[in-house]
Amino acid sequence: MSMPCARTWFRAAVATAWLLAAVAANAQSFTSRLDGTVTDPSGAAVPGVQVTLQNANTGQVRTEETNENGFYRFSALGPGTYDVTVESPGFQQKRTSGIVVQVNQTVQIDIQLVLGDVTETVEVTGSAPLVNTSDPSVAQVIGTKSIEDLPLNGRDFLSLAMLTAGVEQRKTSRGKLSVNGTRGNGLGYLFDGVDANDANAIFQSLTPSLEAIQEFSIQTSNYSAEFGRNAGGQINLVTKSGTNELHGTLFHFLRNAKLDAKNYFVPHGDPNPPFKRNQFGGVLSGPIIKNKLFYLGNYEGFRIRQGITALATVPTAAERVGDFSQTFNANTGALIVVKDPATGQAFANNMIPTQRLDPTGLKILELYPLPNRSGAQNFVSSPSSSFDQDAYTGRVDYQATEKDSLFGRYFATKSNETNPFGRVNGAGGTNVPGFPVIIPVLAQNVSLNWTRILSPSTVMELRSGYHRYYTGRTQDTSRNLLESLGIEGPFEPAEINDGSPLISITGLTTLGDRGELPQIRPQNTYHFWGSVSHTVGRHSLKMGAELRALQENLILASTVRGNFVFNNTYTGYAPADVLTGLPTRVSYTSNSYITGMRDKQIGGYFQDDWKVSQKLTVNLGLRYDFFHPVYDRYDHRANIDFTTAELVRVGENGLSRAGYNKDLNNFAPRLGFAYTPFGDAHTVVRGGYGVFYDKENFNTHINLFQQPLFATSLTFNNPGSISRAVLTTPQTSTGSANAQEPDFKDAYYQHWNLMVEKDIAKDTMISVGYVGSKGARLPGRIDLNAAYPGTTGSVQSRRPLSQYTGLNYTYSGMASIYHSLQVRAEKRFTERFSFLGNYTWSRAIDDGPLYGNAVQNDRNTRAERGLSSTHSPHRLVGSFIYELPLLTNSSTPLRMALGGWQVNGILSALSGTPYNPTVTADIAGIGRAGQRPDRLGDGKIDNWDPERYFDASAFTPAARGTFGNSGRNILLGPGLRNVDFSLFKNFLFKESHQIQFRAEFFNLTNTPNFDLPATAVDAANTVGRISSTLAANRQIQFGLKYIF
Asked: What pTM, to 2 d.p., does this model score?
């Protein structure tokens, strides 16, 4: 076993051992509860009634007795289908079957007894009410049927979170959803109750196979005090467990570009780039010991091959040996004259003599391929990118005794992505093949759970979890081009230097590996908790505490192999400068940033759900969270001494190890109610208010280790030699530094809501309500050393601190506000049909995006207040599933032709998101572009087209040395309309065996959904023009399943 693998298994073993020794510590539970009141025919409560609960799939049984109020409660239930039986002398036995309990749900089943002999049984087929009569939380559960049957491009369960009111995602990073106006990194992910976040950015870091998922819930507002740490909502995903029946599925899904419509902007006649995707696997579950021990195993493979076409400018065969006699200016057609740098005179015949050619320069030009087409961009290539992933899930459930239930689940996924041009998320890199970026990922997640019934009214839950997330970005380490090119220097060890330097040559395409490679980022999260639930009278009490210990060991390179720049400086033509061995500038960073970030999070809570009367439930909760300041195991962190403006290493001059102070007052009260005005479960009014603290990710605090104390940037101007450039005397510069507010506070949100819900038909409900939130102490980032605007003197001379170029300051002072009307209609899947639809009308305002990296004037952040980048005023999303009759009693030809069909769909109609015009030039004279112009008019166009989306004449660059008066996010981009549709054909045989063929269509109507336009008003040729789409045009996928 390799050492990294051994270390991983050792950590998992440690996590398992901690479960057995853990003190009671709790956090977010994914379990549910079922309760109700038992009454006699007159409506009076009946105490002492025996209530038996049986899991319909596993046969597991629990028994309780009603208390003096006739109330019973079963806590710590897993999602599933249950039967409830009540028995009491003088009354007939009553059995209610088919009660579906979903994740994080409280199901109320009130039972009225019938006078008679206990040997007589009344059978009732029941279903849990769709309306929530227990608490103020706003949530949506996505069940097994929707997860497995709705069309999903890529089969990622998280795409279904968009079916929830108040959830917004528009071309953002994977897993980053904005919920009710909160930021995209505020949503927490729990996998069988265990933290499954990328600790660096707080987003989903693993994707289980759909066939292994039972269901998931997304809680968006006013969830109980049991849930903390993430103020932007909670996603609880629960895996399936084995049952008393043997079940299995085999599947294969295929997508191919030959079936896809072309993107709107692909020229007529050009084919789609090659694309092939295969997803395949299976799941098997069943009993080991009936009614006692069960298993589930799952595998899914994922393969993508995608062609990428790129154009590049490369040197000709003659040019790469010094012959420029046929090198002409692409714009004027004139010969480019190459001069002797020693004399300033042109080389004879425009050719560099052989003895003057630099060996390193010759090798650099040999890295380019030869031209294969005419024109300025004289080389085209179409290599393939690849993505390979394998994922495994295993789970065992064990009913050890009548009072003890345990389960353990292990998940692992390993993937490897390679982009031949070194692009990450479609950006960066080079158009010359041979300099790839490789992105490995290894994610592992363990969940171990124990539920113990301490007494008829008390239940204990203990859970331990471990999450491992290893990712990075690496270059091709099979070669060391610094060595083979003959470039000397005090570079880092070979494992960092292997690969290529970055080489920028004016007139040619840049080549080499991305400067920030390699990045290596392994993370470990240890998660422990326990809770105790107790029912006394009309009070359902729950209390517990939580511990999470997070680690990230990061290696972050920054041009450690050097950046060699050639700018027509010596010969008048950069490729000739290369051949004469004369770079304009060489820069490199003396060493990589290495850090071992550590974080501990401790939380505790108390929750009381008080059933004041048959009509009213009041929910009272209090949570406390302590988020330990992030520190570095190597103490590679430094902050600014705000009295001397000097960098101080942590642990020195009174600076704490984290570099900022602790925040100790994170008390979060929760208050809510649920009121049924007619005393039944058909109409409810719910509302609540709560405070929710948000733990910022490692990336918020990473800047304190990216300091010049730990990695020095060196620049060599006109070094006179390629091979020995970094051995000359450098021009050292402190450059920019980073700082953090000493009293940095944890962000928090206030959430409030008022909802009315009503059953309008069998298994059908509608909900209408107001949902709001307000964020405070949100992290932002500004430049404390920003230059004052002006037109005289250098930019640096107008900075307050001359020793720094920039001083990037992280502080906790941004804010947000969100108001919305949310409407939801839902029909549970019965009688072969279900639907879910929601409409959100909202307004989201904030002080800027995460870290405030788009601030125009660092000294006037109030001017940044405007529409949030995730604001979408109107949002309508719906889904449906409809199974046509199987026609089992019809003739075989009729059954084969017309029976077993199923149609499913997801429909979306969304308003556009905000943007604002910009200017490319540094009009204010502050040393950076991206400022806003002056606004002269409205700028909106009613009848727009992709060539002119907004009226650029309504904006003009501000006067030199000033900032524009245009606000942030003042215009709305194009909306989105999309229909995803699937058609199934089910073939049944041998009773419980089924073959299912699927045809799935994404963007069925082939509607182009346009991205934001070009915003630079001083770029006349492109301003207002849209050149890309948010999503692809129609794509088709086929699937085949064998189910038994």
From this structure: 0.89
